[in-house]
Amino acid sequence: MFLKYVLFLLIIAPVFAQNTASITIITNIGIEARLDSYTGFNKNTIAKIQSDAAKEFKIQTDYKGLAFLNFSTGQNYPVYLTGKDFLIRIIDPLKRPMFSQNTDSEYLYQWLSSYKQLQKDDRLLQSSLSNINTNDPFYSEIINEQKRIEQKRLAIISNLNKEPSHGVNLLIQARILNESTYSLKTKEALELKKKEYQQFVQNNLIELYYSDMLLQLCHQDLMMNEYVLVTNTEMYSQINKDVQRWVSMLSPRIEAKETIAFIMKIFYNRGMVSIAAHILQNNRNILDKKVYRNSPNLQSLYNIGETVLDLNIEEAIHSKGRDLTKNKNYKIVSLVDVDDVVSQVSTITLARQLDKTQSKIPIIIIPKEKLTQSHFDMDNLFSGTLYYSKEKNVSIIKEIDFFQFYFLDENNRVERISNNLNEIVLGIQNEN
Known about the structure:
The chain has helices at 103-130, 139-158, 166-179, 187-203, 205-209, 213-223, 232-250, 256-269, 273-282, 284-287, 341-356, 373-377, 421-431; strands at residues 7-11, 21-27, 31-39, 42-51, 55-61, 65-71, 76-81, 86-90, 98-100, 290-293, 317-318, 331-336, 363-367, 386-388, 398-401, 405-408, 414-418. The relative contact order is 0.08. The longest helix has 28 residues, at 103-130. With 432 residues, the chain is an alpha+beta fold.
């Protein structure tokens, strides 16, 4: 007899500690989803869930903290894992899950519902205040409504410490702390708020480490600079301080290079490569690392005077689909790993510097594994042109420094290897 229904559950981390909890999931429909957790800046998959019909199944995990139930259709819902067994009932991906024996998650959703309504009321109030003058007969009523909303806000906040879930309360406080930055207007207020962030993170680092709020706090701590600071000098100076603050705050749990790389990624993702490059330049001694490459054809990249063979450099594709012509001039090879922002930022920085010299020397990107859209998107971050090698198929043979650029002559012979961007640009200018 054939099985009528198919159920698939893949546990990503099958080895658990002794305090493993069992999560029972009951679905009324077929679903495809993941249960994801956080450790510091990293998102991890606890389990992948796939079923073609209503079913009940279990997930085993020793993770404690904030997780997210992410559906393949795009919806995602927070779930707080306490280390105890509980049940999740899924009626429809468009509706939030229901919980049994998990008061922490239920409390989180109740708070989110109340807080969202409060925010909606506040937006309506602000809209009314912007369209009314003090002589209007309804002005006093609006002021009373403003007081009511503020009293409700204070009541919601004051009730946090009265609820049983310490972990959920901290996550809520972190969210409120982030939203308190939007009204900053002075440098003095900015400095005080950063001290508040520092104290909050240091006091609650363990709990925040097992949630997405740590990365959100770090992100907002950097973004609020833009609410107050005006000049580049002020911005760069504050960012230098922020990087050192976060490295120090997170040092009990996260290595300095991981913290710095995450901050660089924040600015890189916003197209602010100059700031990311500034952070890189100030922290090169910390960020210096190796990457494993695995194509035998790349072995010749390590030695000056050797010829690089079979890298498809002559056939490299432009990000917009144009072929690189049979280029018999000088070229620069850069190895880029899209999972490591250091290689992306250093390559774009070199490309921008070469563009200023009006040099026609192409930069050819070789991916760590395979070309992705993230590689091609780099071409949008400066006005010139990047090219991409089709090189792939790898087995680990040697470490390559992300900061190394390989300068090839017209015959693809390695003429120069350098990790000094200024040295490369100066050498090109002298040759021109």
